[in-house]
Write a structure and sequence with these properties.
about 375 residues, mainly beta, Pectate Lyase C-like, 17-stranded parallel sheet, about 5% helix, about 45% strand
C-alpha cells in the first residue's frame, strides 16, 4: 500500500478489484457517447496545437462551449481551470473523453466549485475527471472547496465521475436556498483523498447513489467517505437509495448519517435505504447521530433500512452512535451485517438509539 501521512492517517492505494466502479472499456465509452446526438467537440474552439499539459488557461473557452451548446465533449489532455470554475446550464449533456482531466488553479479560497450544477435541471455528465487544489492550496481556512457541486437542481446524472484532492468535498449535493434538490443519480465513480468528505449530501428528495467508491477522506471533520447530514431544519432527506457502495480507508466513518439538524417545529420525514455497503480500513464502517438534546424542535420520523453490509479491518468497530442519549423516532433496521472486526459488532458498548432492530448480524 502506498501512503501519504497526515497526523494519524495513512493513505492507501485503491485496490485494483474496484476499478470496475469508475472505469469503462473503450466499447462501453463509445456506447455512452451515443447518448449525445449532436455533440460539440470543444477542441474545435481551442487554438491550433493547444496545450494538453495544464499550463494554459482555457477556462473561458470551455465555459463558452457549455453556455452555447447543449451537448459538449471535453478533449483528451490535462487542462487548467481557473478559480471561476465551470458552470453547467440546464438541458446539457457533457462527456469527458478518456484521459481528459480538469486541474484546478492554486488558490487560498475557503469556498469554490470546480464543476457547478446550480439551480438547473436535466443535466447529464459522463466521466468527469477532476483534480482539486489540495496539494497546492495556499490558505488554511474553510472546508467548502467542492469538485462537483449540485445545488437547488433536479434531474441530474453523474456517470462514473472521478474527483480527487479537493479542499472540501469531492461531490456536494444539497441546497443553499429553499429550492429543493430532486432526482439526482450518481452511478459509478471514485472520490479520493478529499479533505472533508468524499460525498456530502445535505438536502435531497430522490437520490440514487450506486456503484461508487469513496476513499481516503482525511484532513478536517467529518473526514468520512459519504456523509448524509442536513445543515438546517427546512432541508430534506427523503427517498435516498444507496446500493453497492464501497468506502475505503476514510479517516473517520465510511458512511455517516447525521440527522440532528432536522429537528423542527413540525416533524420531518426521513427515508433512507442502504443495500450492499462494504467498508475497509475506515475507523468505523458507519456512524449515526440522530439526536442532540441541545437543539430545539421535534424529532424526525421515518426509516433507515441498512442491509447486506460487510465491514473489515475497521480500527474502532463496525457502527458508532455519536448521540449521547437514546432518543430517536426513526425506525432503524440493520440486517445481514458481516464483519471481521474484533470489537463489538454494533455501537461498541455506546448508547444504543431507540427504535433499532438488528437481524442476522454475525462475524
Amino acid at each position: 500500500m502506498g501512503c501519504k501521512s497526515q497526523s494519524d492517517f495513512q493513505y492507501r492505494n485503491i485496490p485494483a478489484e474496484y476499478e470496475y466502479l469508475y472505469k469503462d472499456t473503450p466499447t462501453k465509452r463509445a456506447e455512452t457517447l451515443k447518448n449525445l446526438k449532436n455533440p460539440y467537440y470543444i477542441k474545435t474552439a481551442l487554438p491550433k496545437n493547444y496545450d494538453t499539459t495544464g499550463k494554459k488557461d482555457y477556462t473561458s473557452i470551455f465555459q463558452s462551449a457549455l453556455f452555447n451548446n447543449r451537448e459538449v465533449v471535453f478533449p483528451k489532455g490535462k487542462f487548467f481551470i481557473n478559480k471561476k470554475g465551470l458552470t453547467i446550464p440546464s438541458n446539457t449533456k457533457v462527456y469527458f473523453e478518456e484521459n481528459s482531466v480538469l486541474h484546478f488553479e492554486k488558490n487560498n479560497m475557503i469556498r469554490y466549485e470546480i464543476l457547478r450544477i446550480h439551480e438547473v435541471e436535466n443535466v447529464q455528465v459522463y466521466y468527469a475527471n477532476i483534480v482539486g487544489d489540495r496539494n497546492t492550496h495556499t490558505g488554511k481556512d474553510g472546508e467548502w472547496g467542492f469538485g462537483i457541486s449540485i445545488q437547488d437542481s433536479k434531474n441530474v446524472l453523474l456517470y462514473k465521475p472521478i474527483v480527487k484532492d479537493c479542499w472540501g468535498d469531492g461531490i456536494f449535493i444539497g441546497s443553499e436556498g429553499k429550492i429543493k434538490s430532486q432526482d439526482v443519480t450518481v452511478d459509478g465513480g471514485l472520490v479520493d483523498n478529499n479533505r472533508r468528505n468524499g460525498v456530502s449530501v445535505t438536502s435531497i428528495i430522490g437520490l440514487k447513489l450506486s456503484n461508487l467508491i469513496a476513499a481516503n477522506s482525511n484532513g478536517t471533520f467529518p473526514k468520512s467517505g459519504i456523509d448524509f447530514e442536513p445543515s438546517l431544519n427546512w432541508e430534506f432527506m427523503e427517498e435516498v437509495n444507496v446500493n453497492n457502495i464501497v468506502t475505503f480507508n476514510n479517516q473517520e466513518d465510511g458512511l455517516l448519517i447525521v440527522l440532528v439538524n432536522l429537528k423542527a417545529p413540525r416533524e420531518k420525514n426521513v427515508s433512507i435505504n442502504i443495500n450492499q455497503h462494504t467498508d475497509l480500513y475506515s475507523k468505523y464502517g458507519m456512524g449515526l447521530m440522530l439526536e442532540k438534546k441541545e437543539l430545539p424542535g421535534k424529532l424526525p420520523l421515518g426509516f433507515i433500512n441498512i442491509q447486506n453490509v460487510n465491514y473489515k479491518y475497521n480500527i474502532n468497530g463496525d457502527i458508532r452512535n455519536y448521540s449521547l442519549i437514546p432518543d430517536n423516532k426513526i425506525k432503524i433496521m440493520i440486517s445481514n451485517l458481516k464483519s471481521n472486526n474484533k470489537t463489538d459488532r454494533v455501537f461498541n458498548s455506546q448508547v444504543v438509539p431507540n427504535n433499532l432492530t438488528i437481524k442476522n448480524s454475525g462475524k
